[in-house]
Amino acid sequence: MTSNDAFTLSALRSDVKNRTRRTRETSAMRRMVRETSLSVDNLIYPMFVVEGEDIKTEISSMPGQYQLSVDRLVADCAEIAALDIPGVILFGIPDHKDDIASGAYAEGGIIQNAVRALKEAYPDLCVVTDVCLCEYMDHGHCGIIEGEKVLNDPTLELLEKTAVSHAEAGADIIAPSDMMDGRIGTIRAALDAGGFAQTPIMAYSSKFASAFYGPFREAAESAPAFGDRSSYQMDPANAREAVREIKLDIEEGADIVMVKPALIYLDVIAKAREITDLPVAAYNVSGEFAMLAAACRNGWLDPERAFMETLTSIRRAGADIILTYFAKDAARRLRGDKATPLSWM
Ligand code: PBG
User: Fold this and answer.
1) Would you say 40 and 85 are in contact if contact means Cβ atoms under 8 Å apart?
2) How is residue 16 annotated by DSSP?
3) Which of 58, 77, 87, 259 is deepest in the core (most CB within 10 A)?
4) Whether 260 contacts 176, CB under 8 Å
5) In angstroms, rounded to a whole number, what is the distance separating the alpha carbons of residues 20 and 324?
6) Phi/psi at 334 (nearest 5 deg)?
7) Comparing C-alpha atoms, which of 89, 90, 111 is closest to residue 44?
8) Phi, then psi, of 67 in degrees rounded to 5
9) Which residues 6+ apart lie within 8 Å of 123 measured at CB?
């Protein structure tokens, strides 16, 4: 028997009934049976805004990501618009911090200025603002403190003021990320009373107390001065509680619910998808970005495949919207641009 005979014989085995490989044979076939798609429409790009002029400082733990002054933010968004990325989410880094987060709701605050400038330059760009106080507090916690306790209800008032001031500046979506109880309901009421009944809320509904925000805290200069965030952000061990948080935010009036982080909480994204017909967003956070970029820069992973597989997995789990530092690179590859180098390599 020659080796060729052996091949023919093995090709004819009749006891192999299920041949899942049939539909994997050609690229055209694989395209037809592909279950999940990733589109530029799914992407929101996070950006960090600082005070001053002509500032563009790379964040050391997030290659290709920058702290930008408002003028440079506007300039950089030309690329976002050209790539047809539908939205950006803004994080502010004020020069002045205090214990009432006054910079968060100041009319001339960093986010308010950035939103006005962006909306003027790109009226069609969807500008999402992160509503949180940690970047504006001298102690770096997401609420008013008494001793070492973060107070819930007194914090709500500041969050309401912050949300309304963002809407007044022209924000298209308000995204509260503080994890105080009741904030979606009270922010909804404050927006409605302020004449912004049409401004949607994207709630960071299940936001975990995660180690994967590390690089963001460097970027946003928002690390807590004492303790950690586990009295308000969720325990990474809790998926049922995540469902409860999501349901509560929906009851309180959320228009979009978010799971954060994304990659290490894909199960929670899948649960969110099951329990609601609202759009589900997932935040592919700074640490998830940094980890992948670092492995790729070390030559340990194939960057082109790794980042697109990551985004596809988040969509497969059930997210409609992905907030991701990979947005620009993904948009380029999705439109067939294979030549522009990845911004983080
Ligand atoms: C809170 C906020 C954080 C992130 C988004 N909003 C940090 C935190 O809760 O400490 C993290 C995003 C990321 O890691 O990319 N203002």
Assistant:
1) yes
2) -
3) 259
4) no
5) 33
6) -65, -30
7) 89
8) -90, 130
9) none
Q: What is the tens place of the pLDDT at every residue in 306-338?
A: 999 999 999 999 999 999 999 999 999 999 999
Is pTM beyond 0.85 here? yes
Q: How far does CA 19 lie from the centroid of its chain?
A: 39
Q: Count CB-CB contacts under 10 A for residue 196.
A: 18
Instruction: Show the tokens assigned to 77.
Output: 């968004």
* Owner of token pair 């002509």: 54
Q: Which two tokens stand for residue 61?
A: 């733990």
Query: Residue 96's pLDDT is what?
Result: 95
Mutation choice for ligand 1 from 132, 233, 259, 325, CB with most ligand atoms inside 8 A: 132
Q: Is 224 in the pocket of ligand 1 (CB under 6 A)?
A: no
Centre of ligand 1 to C-alpha 71, Å, is 24
Question: Coil, helix or strand for 186?
Answer: helix
Active site residue 207: yes
Q: Which amino acid is at 83?
A: L
Rounded Cα distance between 92 and 69, Å, is 10
Handedness of CA 105, 108, 111, 115 (dihedral sign): positive
